Amino acid sequence: MSRRDFLKKSALAFGSLMPWYTQKMPTDERDCSRNKQIKISLNAYSFNSYLQEGEMDLEELLLYCAELNFDALDPTGYYFPDYPEIPSDEYIYKIKRNAFIHGMEISGTGIRNDFTDPDPANRRADLDLIKEWVQVAAKLGAPIIRVFAGRGIPEGYSRSEMNGWVAEALKECVGYGREYGVMIGVQNHNDYLKTADHVLEIIELVNSDWLGIILDVGSFSTANPYKDIARVAPHAISWQIKENLGYRDKTVRTDLHKIADILEEVDYRGYIPIETLGGDPMKKVPPFLDEVREAVYGR
Q1: Most distant CA pair in the chain: distance in Å?
Q2: Is the CA virtual torsion 146, 48, 151, 247 positive or negative?
Q3: Cβ(273)–Cβ(216) under 8 Å?
Q4: Helix (H, G, I), strand (E, B) or coil at 172
Q5: What rounded mean pLDDT belongs to the chain?
Q6: Is the predicted pLDDT of residue 153 greater than 60, yes or no?
Q7: Which residues have C-beta within 8 Å of that of residue 55, sequence separation ≥ 6?
Q8: Phi/psi at 51 (nearest 5 deg)?
Q9: How many helices and strands (H and E) does the chain possess?
């Protein structure tokens, strides 16, 4: 019997058992949690002070994540040696190998950029930097690189003009990302992109299936941030789950169960990096991870 015939017969045999298998398996065992296709990652910015001050490096953070049974790490570009210069292949592949050995995935990476800078030379430099880091992401095996739209609207310019600059730059980014198999994720960061309308304008202008949103739940300071999150969620290719979110006049603890409901409503599948801000991440990350797991998986 050829290998192909053997696999066909095995598949048919297994298929004939499936009705019995699903019938006999208790419902609570078959579907004991929701959002099962979601993987929880750690955004390295949670450990910004440790990484910037040399108390920890990316390799140590990777091991820390493995100990806490994270599914993945999002190693922001700032924390690679000599950023914004691209790291050596030797270093990239060391991180990639260590992730594999410890059962970890790389959920994405990201850099700083500003496509609302009035100086076209600066915008071009940021485009070139993104292209270089697209190659780093590809070598890491990271499916997404996180970028920003810009810091805001410079004096004397309009949002319409800025939308043109941002969309033009992102179109070039996604074209390059497509060549390397890396998605471009633009993050709402309460700077140029403050509302769901702002985000959706850019998505529509770029109109590419290689562009998505890094949905930062803590960066919609609007009358109803959950409404903005839900409107943008269908376009999310990654998230940043934060402890707090903002209304126009106050900051409140994030209702993780509402976020989990939105994830379920849009049938999101993929990574949800968490990010803690302020305080000691060694004390804040583990309990927040537990809260997110309970809300998202229903356990």
Answers
A1: 75
A2: positive
A3: no
A4: helix
A5: 89
A6: yes
A7: 49
A8: -75, -40
A9: 11, 11
Query: For residues 155 and 171, what is the distance between their CA atoms, to the nearest angstrom?
Result: 25
> Are residues 48 and 265 in contact, defined by beta-carbon separation less than 8 angstroms?
no
Contact (CB, 8 A) for 215 and 233: yes
- Spatial separation of the C-alpha atoms in residues 211 and 222, rounded to whole Å: 24
- 6 membership: H or E segment, kind and range: helix 3-24
What is the reported pTM?
A: 0.86
Q: Which domains does the chain have, with CATH numbers?
A: 35-297 (3.20.20.150)
Q: What is the pLDDT of residues 250-270, one digit of tens each?
A: 889 999 999 999 999 999 999
Cβ-proximal residues to 145 (8 Å cutoff; 6+ apart), any chain: 108, 109, 110, 111, 130, 133, 134, 137, 177, 182, 183, 184, 185
Find the helix or strand (DSSP H, E) in which 113 lies. none
Task: Name the DSSP class of 77.
Answer: G
Token code pair at residue 209: 């299936």
